[in-house]
Prior knowledge:
- By secondary structure, the protein is mainly β.
- The protein folds into 2 domains: 1-162, 3 Solenoid (UDP N-Acetylglucosamine Acyltransferase, domain 1); 164-200, no CATH class.
- The protein contains no helices and 26 strands.
- The chain has strands spanning 4-5, 10-11, 16-17, 22-23, 28-29, 34-35, 40-41, 46-47, 52-53, 58-59, 64-65, 70-71, 76-77, 82-83, 109-111, 116-117, 122-123, 127-129, 134-135, 140-141, 149-152, 157-161, 170-171, 177-178, 185-188, 195-198.
- The protein has a 9-stranded mixed β-sheet, with no helix packed on it.
- Strand 23 (170-171) and strand 24 form a beta hairpin.
- The radius of gyration is 18 Å and the shape is globular.
- The model has no long low-confidence stretch (mean pLDDT 95).
Amino acid sequence: MNLRIQESADVDASALIGEGSSIWHLAQVRDGARLGKNVVVGRGAYIGSDVHVGDNSKIQNYALVYEPADLANGVFIGPAAVLTNDTFPRAINPDGGQKDASDWDAVGVRIEQGAAIGARAVCVAPVRIGAWATVAAGAVVTSDVPPHALVAGVPARRIKWVGKSGTPLEMNESGLWKDNSTGDVYREKEDSDELEEVSE
C-alpha cells in the first residue's frame, strides 16, 4: 500500500488509512477513524475516534477534528481549524464530580463534498456545511451553511456565493450566477436560500 506515515505520528492500529494517504509529523489519528484514499493529515492535526474523512481531503496543520465528524470527499480543513463535538461543554457535573464519556452525547459536524473550512475557523456542532461551501478564516459557524455559500464573521453569515472553483460567483445579465473559472451557472431556488446548477 502506498502510504506515508511519519514515525512521530500517532496512528491507532484500528484506524483505516486509504491508499496514497499521508500522515505528517506529530499528527494523531484515533481508534476507529476511517480515512479515504489520498488524504493528507498535516503536522500536529488531530482526527478523533470513528471520524470519517473522504477521499482526496486535506486536513492542514494543527486542525482538530473531533468525533463524530463526517467529512465527504474533497474536503479542505485549514490550519488550526476546529470541529467541535459538545453542545454544552463542562469539565464537571453539577455535583462537582468530573464528567466522563457517559455524561454527555457527542454531536458532530458534517461537511459535504468539496467544501472548505478556513484557517482558525470553528464549526460548533451540530452543523452541516453544504457541498462546495467556504467558511472564511476565523469564522465561527453556529448554524447550517447552504451549498456554495461563502460565510464569514462571528457568528458566520453568508456574504457571497462561490463556485466549485472556490471563487465568488458573479451575476450575469440574465440574473443567474456564474463561476467565471469553470463556466458553471446557477440560479437561486425560489423560497430557499440555496442555489441550483442550470444550463445557460
